[in-house]
Amino acid sequence: MLEGKKALITGADQGLGKEIAKEFLKQGASVCICSREENRLRETVKELEGYQKSAGQRVIFQRADVGSTEDLDRLYDAVLQEFGTLDGVVNNAGIQGPIGDTTKVPWEGIEEVVRINLLGTLYSMRKAVLVFREQKKKGRIVNLSGGGATGPREFFMGYAVAKTGVVRATETMAKETEQDGICINAIAPGAMNTRMLEEMLAAGETALGKRAYEQALGQKEKGGAPLEKAARLAAFLVSDRAGTMSGRLISALWDGWGDFDAHAEEIAGSDIYTLRRIVPKDRGFQWE
Q: Is 25:236 a contact under the CB 8 Å cutoff?
């Protein structure tokens, strides 16, 4: 549970980010949400206020483009001014970027998705760590990964590269901060029916390829992965229940994270839930 905690959730005016904010509020946290759309933020805050568990909780917002270091500086200043402290950060904001053959999509679009999804997340992590160290807090950071992070995702080059980078940045920053007691993990939320799915369907079969387009159609029809499950995982990773687990990529759908608190030592002493290279002996081959 998150009673009394103060959390920042980026990209939380819709979709998964808003669902995470709801879950944090239901578990007793105060939250600051941000996005690039101020009008939508105002409306979302009104909606989120209905999920407060107690009178002491607060829901605030700050307009910010996470691809802008200046905006992120202002965002963190605003959070500290309003809350005075910070316990957890969920870096959820992101865009899908151009869809299609890498040699044909606009290069500027690839640069933009990497700037927002990867560099924005990395800069936010950096800001959060500075705050936690200054306040001598064992804060917690959750980064959103996604499609392409653990395997190739053709026709989504910018998105796949950025989300893979988010996982390695998570693992690297976790190593740098383990002496501080700061815990940093990443989430793979599953294929959800959000605006990104609508963007894929709008791009059409030519851009996505036949297999990916058919998968997107099937996902829309079946409903996709539940947002609530990823939101509960984010809350778990910001809570004390997650213990000292850090530097991991957790699947909201497939990993039994509800029991992780009972296996903390096993997880910490292994390389499970991390990105790694598979070598021949892992597959039963004899050559080196």
A: no
Of the chain, the percentage scoring pLDDT greater than 90 comes to 67
CB contact at 8 A, 194 and 16? yes
For the beta carbon of residue 33, count every other beta carbon within 10 angstroms. Answer: 28
pTM of the predicted structure, to 2 decimals: 0.91
Pick the CATH number of 6-190+225-271 from 3.40.109.10, 3.30.1330.60, 3.50.50.60, 3.40.50.720: 3.40.50.720
Q: Return the ∠ at Cα 73 (arms to 231 and 230), rounded to 5°.
A: 10
**Domain locations along the chain:** 6-190+225-271
Give dist(CA 94, CA 62) in Å, integer.
Answer: 16
Q: Does residue 113 contact residue 98 with C-beta atoms inside 8 Å?
A: yes
Q: What percent of the chain has pLDDT over 70?
A: 89
- Least confident range from 51-55, 152-156, 217-221: namely 217-221
Which residues make beta-bridge pairs with 10?
A: 34
Catalytically active residues, by annotation? 159
The answer to whether 185 and 248 are in contact (CB under 8 A) is: yes
Sequence-distant (6+) residues with CB within 8 A of 81 are none
Query: Does the pLDDT of residue 114 top 60, yes or no?
Result: yes
Place of tokens 């778990």: 236
Instruction: Report the distance separating Cα 132 and Cα 173, nearest Å.
Output: 13
Q: Angle at the Cα of 220 (from 18 to 149), degrees rounded to 5?
A: 65
